[in-house]
């Protein structure tokens, strides 16, 4: 497996629940290293731009409203097979379908307030990392 980087966002619901540290602990225990991080209250334009691929989906406006409802914690995770590893830690999009012990099973309330975002491919990871972090702010760990 190759060393990869992926973009992770701890969404407003999980930040409000004060479980940022618990979620970081899961990344670390799985061998993922934090290579960049920042807390940010996204503007509407930033959230719309980030989720532009979903613009035509019926849930787009609600998703944007949710993502700007409070600050989020944004991080780049680095490690062997980081994209898939993070997706496995997150669990299914709908917490009702998420496997026991995953972040969404433990901390998410609904399909829209679902605690975390994670890039779904290596190609999207590169785009999403660059959306939030200049290359000089991402550290090799
Ligand atoms: N989402 C939603 N309703 C849906 C499907 C998705 O609110 O019916 C939101 C949810 O927050 C999800 C995000 O849109 O995390 C992006 O959807 P995607 O299918 O890419 O899921 P993910 O990659 O986050 O598991």
From TrEMBL:
Residues involved in ATP binding: 11, 59, 87, 93, 104, 114
EC number: 2.7.4.6
One GO molecular-function entry: metal ion binding
CDD domains on file: NDPk_I
Entry keyword set: ATP-binding, Cytoplasm, Kinase, Magnesium, Metal-binding, Nucleotide metabolism, Nucleotide-binding, Phosphoprotein, Transferase
Pfam assignment, any one: NDK
Reaction(s) catalysed (UniProt annotation): a ribonucleoside 5'-diphosphate + ATP = a ribonucleoside 5'-triphosphate + ADP; a 2'-deoxyribonucleoside 5'-diphosphate + ATP = a 2'-deoxyribonucleoside 5'-triphosphate + ADP
Gene Ontology annotations for the cellular component aspect, listed alphabetically: cytoplasm
HAMAP family referenced in this protein's UniProt entry, alphabetically: NDP_kinase
Function: Major role in the synthesis of nucleoside triphosphates other than ATP. The ATP gamma phosphate is transferred to the NDP beta phosphate via a ping-pong mechanism, using a phosphorylated active-site intermediate.
Protein name: Nucleoside diphosphate kinase
Organism for this UniProt entry: Agrilutibacter solisilvae
């Amino acid at each position: 497996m190759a060393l990869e980087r992926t973009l992770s966002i701890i969404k407003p619901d999980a930040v409000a629940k004060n479980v940022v540290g618990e979620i970081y602990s899961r990344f670390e225990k799985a061998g993922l290293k934090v290579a960049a991080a920042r807390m940010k209250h996204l503007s509407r334009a930033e959230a719309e731009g980030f989720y532009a691929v979903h613009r035509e989906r019926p849930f787009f406006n609600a998703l944007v409203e949710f993502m700007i409802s409070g600050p989020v914690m944004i991080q780049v995770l680095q490690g062997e097979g980081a994209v898939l590893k993070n997706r496995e830690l997150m669990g299914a999009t709908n917490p009702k379908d998420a496997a026991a012990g995953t972040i969404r099973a433990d901390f998410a309330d609904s399909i829209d307030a679902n605690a975390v975002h994670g890039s779904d491919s290596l190609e999207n990871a590169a785009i999403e990392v660059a959306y939030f972090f200049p290359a000089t702010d991402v550290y090799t760990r």
